[in-house]
Write a structure and sequence with these properties.
Layout (H helix, E strand, L loop, with lengths): L11 E4 L7 H4 L6 E5 L7 E2 L2 H8 L3 E8 L9 E8 L6 H25 L14 E2 L15 H11 L2 E5 L2 E11 L9 E3 L4 E4 L4 E9 L5 E2 H7 L10
Parallel strand pairs: 1-2, 3-6
Antiparallel strand pairs: 2-4, 4-5, 7-8, 8-11, 9-10, 10-11, 11-12
Helix pairs in contact: 2-4
Length: about 230
């Protein structure tokens, strides 16, 4: 029986793939392997670029279409598109916007590759940063941090986690507000809102969730579990 030789694929397209592909696989497609990466390379190479950008307070993110090599997101870049990070963006909303942008950009790049127009540009050595995989323990809020850092953690981990007088809670949404000096994690205002002191300033928590419960606004939460100033998070 005659053996039929498999056709060589034109390209391999990868998105949100957490492993480094071996060179033997990268060499199979005629035009190599192309990766949609959710950052403006060389910033935030690695597994969690969206969360790291939010934690760092970056003002913009974007997508890069990269020719894969055997390194960690280190191959030449064929195209990039930037987007501003909105003040209320969280990991979910930013992911969805970048996913749409990356899909559209990949279609354009594949057309350029097929037409012989695509040219990869080596990544500069300056500006390389890494985005390691998120550890579950990182999502535990550290109230000794500044209010800006706590607010960014809530958006990056969406939800972040803490404890309220020893009971586990998830924090879904918060914003920075001025705050008088109080021990970090102290509830300082429960009059129609929930304000918690941080290392500097405070955050107003607008959405949170008790273990086994549903996601609630702060007003709904306080209606079911009244709190007084002096209660403690963390």
């Amino acid at each position: 029986m005659e053996r039929v030789k498999a056709a060589r694929p034109d390209a391999l397209v990868v998105a949100a793939y957490g492993l480094i592909l071996p060179q033997s696989l990268l060499d199979i497609p005629r035009y190599g392997a192309l990766n949609i990466h959710a950052s403006l390379l060389p910033r935030w190479r690695g597994a969690a670029p969206i969360q790291r950008a939010l934690l760092a307070g970056d003002e913009q993110s974007g997508v890069s279409i990269m020719q894969m090599d055997a390194g960690l997101d280190s191959g030449p870049v064929l195209a990039q598109r930037a987007v501003a990070i909105a003040p209320d963006d969280d990991a979910g909303t930013l992911h969805d916007r970048l996913a749409m942008l990356g899909a559209d950009l990949m279609v354009t790049v594949l057309q350029d590759v097929a037409a012989g127009r695509a040219r990869g540009v080596p990544q500069p050595l300056a500006g390389i940063t890494y985005a390691p995989k998120v550890d579950k323990r990182e999502a535990l809020l550290d109230w000794t941090r500044s209010a800006a850092e706590v607010e960014r953690a809530v958006r990056a981990f969406h939800p972040a986690s803490s404890a309220l007088d020893g009971d586990p809670v998830r924090v879904w949404r918060a914003r920075v507000v001025p705050g008088a000096a109080q021990p970090p994690g102290t509830v300082v205002d429960t009059t129609g809102r929930l304000v918690v002191a941080c290392g500097t300033d405070a955050v107003e928590i607008s959405e949170l969730q008790r273990a086994g419960g549903r996601r609630l606004t702060a007003v709904e939460f306080l209606r079911g579990r009244p709190l007084r100033p002096g209660a403690r998070f963390g």
